Amino acid sequence: MNKIIVFTMLLALLSCQEESKNKSRVDKLPFYSEETYTPHWFANEDEMPNSFHQISPFKFQNQDGEFVTQETFDGKIYVTDFFLLHAEVFVQK
């Protein structure tokens, strides 16, 4: 009976190892250029052809009055979809 308790305690201690939550399986993500979802991997940005779409530099004001730019997302992966909520500038009177 004591052996079972010791074994259970040892197993519990070994299973409580801290893991890195931010650890990724890959260093870089692939680029996708067509609807077949064929991944294209590049060792560095210099190898990437100009045909791949990239978001142009931007600067917008968010709902808290803070400016958001591409630097806001440095080192992060993001999906971009811009939409306009205030169209007075474009509506002619």
Please characterize this protein's 3D structure.
The chain is largely without helices or strands and 93 residues long. It is built from 1 helix and 4 strands, in the order αββββ. Helix content is 14%, strand content 11%.
General form:
elongated
Task: Please compute the radius of gyration using only Cα atoms.
Answer: 24 Å
What letter string, H or E per element, gives the SSE order?
A: HEEEE
Helix content range of the residues, please?
A: 10-25%
N-C termini distance: 87 Å
The overall pLDDT, averaged over residues, is 75
The percentage of residues in β strands lies in: 5-15%
Strand order, sheet with most strands: 1-2
Number of strands: 4
Question: Biggest sheet, open or closed, and with what strands and sense?
Answer: 2 strands, antiparallel
Secondary-structure content class: little secondary structure
Low-confidence stretches: none
Please, how many helices?
Answer: 1
